[in-house]
Specification:
This protein is an alpha/beta fold and 297 residues long. The chain has one domain (2-165, 196-224, 269-283): NAD(P)-binding Rossmann-like Domain (Rossmann fold), CATH 3.40.50.720. The chain is built from twelve helices and 14 strands. The strands form four sheets. Strands 1, 2, 3, 4, 5, 6, 7 and 12 form an eight-stranded parallel β-sheet that branches. A two-stranded parallel ribbon has the order 8-11. A two-stranded parallel ribbon has the order 9-14. Strand 4 (60-63), helix 3 and strand 5 (106-109) form a beta-alpha-beta unit. The two termini are 25 Å apart.
Length: 297
């Protein structure tokens, strides 16, 4: 099996590469710099340049490229980078795929639960409509960029990923040291829902998308049991065996994070209906098992 992966230096991409190599798949990593390894190929998603020969006869192309949403404050310039880095990479791959002699059987084009916007305490699944806000607009355009591939009768599936829990990166990497020092706490009032998934289940679910021909369109990559921020805080405190009595006021978050604070304080209660209907079983089905896995996987 040949898998072509973009975003291979990121948390999810690097884990997917490691897992595919363990399974003895042929892995090709598309990188923007000069290649350093035999399994790397340089591309330029901004200029729309990618080597078609590298993509030929791939079983799946997995596009995980995109600037980190929470890496910096959301200046006007950085918001443009968040959008462009996703849309440009997807359009470049889509334009290439439809011109291949032997195209992949599936194009796994990244997405996020930001599609749904703030759902408050209402649980929603893939049947829900597009939400409102910057990230909803980003995700809509991100997914839309893959439409050309779908029109050529190639299966396209969008893993709408929630908060990926791993000590290697993302949110948990940032807050875990604080919790280990007993400096963890709720964000705002703690009532906002967080929809999460372990890195292990994220990678397993990506393989499921590749293999299961029934899955198309947006598929939620979230644990079936989302929790409030207060419940998350209590669980992580228990896992690291340290108290978490502190509270970060909403105003302090707004000052520290700027517009991104809307996401930290917003509520997303997202359910993985399509994955469950397709027979996917979560190895970490709740927040405690997820966090215990996250600090070891």
């Amino acid at each position: 099996m040949k898998i072509v992966i973009t975003g291979s230096s990121g948390l999810i991409g690097s884990a997917l590469v490691r897992d595919c190599e363990k399974k003895n798949f042929e892995v090709v990593k598309l990188v923007r710099r000069a290649p350093k390894q035999e399994n790397e190929s340089q591309w330029d998603p901004i200029k729309g340049i990618v080597d078609l020969n590298v993509l030929e006869k791939a079983t799946a192309i997995v596009n995980l490229a995109g600037a980190g949403v929470g890496d910096r404050r959301w200046s006007k310039k950085y918001k443009k980078l968040i959008l462009d880095s996703r849309v440009n990479s997807t359009e470049t791959l889509a334009n290439a795929i439809v011109n291949l002699k032997t195209p992949p059987s599936v194009f796994v084009s990244g997405s996020a639960i930001g599609f749904y916007g703030d759902t408050a305490d209402v649980a929603v699944d893939e049947n829900a409509n597009l939400g409102e806000g910057f990230l909803s607009d980003v995700v809509f355009n991100w997914e839309y960029a893959a439409q050309r591939v779908r029109s050529n009768n190639i299966r396209v599936v969008h893993p709408r990923t929630g908060l990926v829990m791993s000590k290697r990166g993302g949110l948990l990497k940032k807050i875990l040291p604080l919790f280990k020092l007993g400096l963890g706490g709720k964000l705002g009032n703690g009532k906002q829902y967080w929809s999460y998934i372990s890195l292990e289940d994220e990678i397993r679910a990506l393989h499921h998308l590749i293999d299961d021909v029934r899955l198309t369109g947006g598929v939620n990559f979230t644990n079936p049991n989302p929790v409030t921020n207060a419940e998350f805080t209590k669980s992580l405190s228990s896992v690291v065996n340290r108290p978490a009595f502190l509270k970060v006021p909403s105003l302090a978050l707004k000052i520290a994070l700027g517009e991104f604070s809307i996401e930290a304080l917003g509520s997303s209660r997202i359910l993985p209906s399509k994955l469950k209907a397709a027979g996917f079983k979560f190895n970490q089905p709740d927040i405690l098992s997820t966090l215990n896995s996250a600090i070891t996987y």
